[in-house]
Amino acid sequence: MAKLIAKPKLWMGLATVSLLVTTLMFSGQQLTNVYAGLINDVLGLSTTKVGSLEGDVVEGSAYKDSTGSLSDEGWSRMIADSYKFCEEAVEQGAVLLKNSEKDGKPVLPLAEDERNVSLLGRGSKNLFMRSGAGGAAPNENFVVYLDQAFERNGFSINRTIFDAYSKLSLSQMTTPSTNVEQAVSFYTPERKATFAEYSDAAIVTIVRIGTENTDPAPGRLDLHNDEKDLLRMIKNEGVFKKTIVIINAPFPMSVDWVDDPQYGVDALLYMGVPGYYGSPGVVHALMGKNAAGEVVNPSGHLANTFAASASSSPAYVNFGNRNIAVYQEGVYVGYKYYETRYEDAILGQGNATSTKGVFHSNGGWNYADEMGYPFGFGLSYTDFEQRITNIRYNAGTDQIEVTAEVRNVGDMDGKASVQVYVQAPYTQFDKDNGLGRPSIALMEYDKVDVKAGQTVATTIKFDRYFLATYDYKVNKHYILEGGTYYFALGNGAHEALNNILFVKDPTLPLVDHLGEAYDGVSNAVRSLEIEEDLIKYATSVYDSNVQVTNQFDDADYNYFVSNPANHIKYVDRQDWDGTWPNSLITTNPAPSAALNMAQYYSKPVDGPKYSEGDGTAYNVPYINDDGEVELITFSDMSDIPLEGEVTEGRFAGKDGAEMWDAFIKQMDLDDLIISVSDNRGILDVKKVLKKGNSVAEGPEGLLSRFQYGDKRWATGFPTGPVYSATFDHEMQAKFGGFYGEEALFCGVASVNAPGANINRTPYGSRASEYMTEDGMMNYLVAANVVGAARKKGLIMNIKHCFLNNQENGRQRISTFCDEQAIREIYLRPFEGALTKGKGLGIMTSYNRIGVVYAATHEPLMMNVMRGEWAYRGFIIDDALTGSNTADYANGPAMIYCGTDLFCLDGNRGTQLKQWVTQNDDGTMVECLQRANKYVMYGISRSWMGGLRISEADLGNPWWKDVVNGMVIGATVVTAALVGLYIFSEIISKKKPVVEAE
């Protein structure tokens, strides 16, 4: 033993190795602290199990038991209803676009004796069920594939063909730009021989895939050659009684092929993206009934325009460059382009029939040649007549009220979509100042059940504020222009516009979307004379103390172009020929210095010092009225408003703002950096007894497991284009409600969802997460979803604000847009979510607004959101790591300008602490306090505000104790080895020990 001890080289080597291991373990410990939220999420520890909640913080679950608690039994009822909703959403959101007659009868619904069918096209086997971005995972034992949906509803399908698809590689079906169909050589004579037995219908599913990071390549939304060959083969075989095409895609595809006789398409149904459990809904729509025999009559209407060519809009000209996107089309996006140009063509004005923008017309631009199916269009198995019976302006509520009657003149019960559109006057002021005025704009909608032969009345209300235009040139705020405003109903925007044009001039040669003569319906139109008002909307409709004015002058491309002769021309309906975008703009007009400095932050010269604030500016104990130190806890704050008097709880009578200030000031710097960092969750803040909470992902469903029942994954719901296409406030709110229910049973308080950007072009790959092409409709849908989820106790972080309309180059890309379009289109969905929907979470986008990164855009966050919209929730950035010195995603600048929470970046808090201490920056501490206030306020209004937490509830997760124990153990071993080395050195320098013989 003595010889072993007297070997210093041995101990030095062991100590060195141990020191290296200890150092690595210490570094690993620091990394686990940074990624603690992500680790908790992977291990299922990021959520807090919801039992019973104290107080009436939120409405809570409809499935709680008699004690107010969640349970396995309640979960069983909830999940059954959730899956049923998935089917109903597809039943009501699938859009019937074509339904020809054969032998004097419509092709759909399928008759009782038409149950032997062939599901053709690879998409039949490989449905696109949800976005490729983060979100709900499939529960394979419960996912309903298309073949199962048909067979469970009594169909016999051609298994020879379907099973042959199963043996093909999936590699062709995984990205937006890969091949999606087999060559017709796949259909060998042996396989074709099976057609006859399953010939009641050839049901062809055409698939397009959307995901994150990558947009479809040009032309991918057209029908591919293999798909054309498949349709031609089906027709030429002459075996099938009818050919039904289902489009399974988030995108509006090119549909120039639908009526081409060589393809023989008898019926066309747009199913959208049905989620993992919604596919039975499309089968029910084809049958006209569900498995229980209840009537299912298609009632979906297009939430995006299906043009003959998906590339035919002016917006598409400036789509796809990875460095710059110029919204040269202004307000003429989606249907607002096609329908406005149609009116101008009919009226013979604005060079609307020039060859610019022609894709399918023979000669000059022709609406029917360029159009497939208009926005808002959808067929039913019955017929409806709609008329406006009354319209009035209610000065007390500042709302327009439209009363309509819907009569079902067919022989089948159905649901009717009542869409209210407006045509505002296109004034000389607009023309002189280059302001856009679309010919038609959606204002509101309703969905009514109407039995065959019956009439139902409904009154639809909307704020007059939405009739105002944003004048960014002269008045620099919203103005209500004087003149005649026409309000109309119709089966989509085109029919509503035709009805208005008919009332204005019955002699006009109006046509429908197929090019056939259209007889206008005069009683579907009413008008109001509205006086000019340049003052009413110069102040915010949400806070009359806030002036509305330009905030995005530098988002205009021409802002950086000093010579007016070099200004780009925005599309102007006064001259479609002269202002049509000629080519993709690829040059950024901003100087490189402006572009490279997204937004930096410097400590204010006269700002407070961090070192002088301990005990006065932060880490300040709260002293109650009795002069005693008292802890204000997170749960206390659920009853305390940000402004105004506290009306209940132990702080009743106090000023809310003062109490929030006192609550936040209790925390020191180490406390403050916790709640600005998210990594699939925010960690505990022990100082104020605030339990950590998860921040989940998933626009179409939570990326989380249930804590009750069999603990399966949360539901992957039908996606944005589906529930939007219902044109039904109740169905859209149901989506938010079930999402909120599932969050309760998962223990999730906040989620980065839903997506509310408009579909500026059909080629935006996040289309399955977004809602529609229309800013106003997204305003309404987003409000429905976010508001319903919040009632359940879930804070939805609506995303991605804003101008995030393409995936290619989405990080750092400069997006340029005029402020009229920004206000009336691109910001409006987020406005709806935060105001009408009372949302308390919003996510900014990756892109630059002009040259300024969205998460450092102070005018957006502080002036528009917190000023004009009176928003009091938190602002989270999109997941992007950065640093204290970065020229993009600069941490101190982001916090200073209004960002409150860093998504998937657990290191940001530590970086900000370093900034504060190294720069002695008290101003940054104040910014961290502001961020904490909004984060804490938002989460306190979730179901977590009803939790009563003690210190015992805030212990470390088990893995942290294991890691800490390992580090301590390694440190002890290293110390022992170093000690042995020192002792060995001492022994070795003494005379050798002579042992007795």
Low-pLDDT runs:
993-997
Terminal CA distance: 18 Å
How many DSSP helices?
29
Whole-number radius of gyration?
31 Å
Largest sheet, in brief, is:
6 strands, mixed
What amount of the residues lies in strands? 5-15%
CATH superfamily of one domain: Immunoglobulins
How would you sum up the global shape?
A: globular
**Which CATH C-level class of one domain is it?**
Mainly Beta
Task: Please give the number of β-strands.
Answer: 29
Q: Please identify, by name, the CATH architecture of one domain.
A: Sandwich
Question: Pairing-aware structural class of the strands and helices?
Answer: alpha/beta
Q: Report the mean per-residue pLDDT as an integer.
A: 93
Helix content: 25-40%
Structure, explained:
A six-stranded mixed sheet has the order 1-8-7-6-4-5, with helices on both faces. A six-stranded mixed sheet has the order 21-22-23-24-26-29. It contains 29 helices and 29 strands. Helices cover 31% and strands 14% of the residues. Strand 27 (848-849) and strand 28 (852-853) form a beta hairpin. The chain is an alpha/beta fold. Residues 993-997 have low confidence and may be disordered. Helix 6 packs across helix 10. Among the domains are: 2-40 and 957-988; 95-291, Glycoside hydrolase family 3 C-terminal domain (Rossmann fold, 3-Layer(aba) Sandwich); 332-544, Immunoglobulin-like (Sandwich), CATH 2.60.40.
